[in-house]
Amino acid sequence: MALMAMKKSAMLKSLNGGLKMAATRAFSSLSVGSDLLSSAPDVSLQKARSWDEGVSSKFSTTPLHDIFKGKKVVIFGLPGAYTGVCSSQHVPSYKNNIDKFKAKGIDSVICVSVNDPYVLNGWAEKLDAKDAVEFYGDFDASFHKSLDLTVDLSGALLGTRSHRWSAYVDDGNVKVLNVEEVPSEFKVSGGDHLLAQI
Q: Residues 74, 75, 81, 86: which is the catalytic one?
């Protein structure tokens, strides 16, 4: 029992240390003033959907241009569907503020995660959030890698994932950007925080 507790403690220290180290590096591909479309060229995302919808659409993807060009978009990234804080606080903080975002002229609120679109679809339905938030899968982390927003969460058996982050993007241009330093501390990437910055 003591050995298990020591291993768990060591894993958490290692995980937190790795997260802090990764988070303190420069996020050179994305910053306030960046053109998101140029920062992630040739990247497409997969809109959350059922398997049957995927088959009928021939597993289509959505180019970033279609998501951001000529639109005011709030986007937030998180480590994964069905994870604790993401389910209990992160997505609900956007869902519960959707009317306030719309009142500020936001065209869409988007959640993107390193998951396949089918898992995201099930999760969005479980959270009853599909009517408020659009969910997109970044199945191979190519979007987050392009933006230097990945973190190695192998210690939690998740592999390469996204930092928790949020941004307000106007016509592809990043106007506000928040990146969590330690994903276990839900602070700056929530809906309330971003809403106050727009």
A: 86
**Alpha-helical segments (H) within 43-151:** 51-56, 64-68, 84-85, 91-95, 98-103, 117-126, 142-146
| Confidence bin at 23 (pLDDT 50/70/90) | very low
Show the tokens assigned to 103: 């009142």
Going by C-alpha positions, the residue among 164, 170, 168, 169 that lies closest to residue 188 is 164
For residue 153, which amino acid is it?
L
Q: Give per-residue pLDDT as tens, 75-87.
A: 999 888 888 787 8
Is 86 among the catalytic positions? yes
Classify residue 26 by its DSSP letter. Answer: -
pTM to 2 decimals?
Answer: 0.78
Collect all residues with Cβ–Cβ distance below 8 Å to 1 and sequence separation of at least 6: none
End-to-end alpha-carbon separation of the chain, Å? Answer: 49
Buried b (16+ CB within 10 A) or exposed e, 150-181: bbebebbeeeebbbbbbbbbbebebebbbbbe
* Dihedral angle over CA of 135, 30, 83, 106, nearest 10: -40
Burial class of residue 147 in the structure, from the number of CB atoms within 10 Å of its CB (0-12 exposed, 13-18 middle, 19+ buried): buried
Q: What is the mean pLDDT of the chain?
A: 79
Determine contact, residues 81/113, Cβ cutoff 8 Å.
yes
Question: What mean pLDDT do residues 114-133 have?
Answer: 93
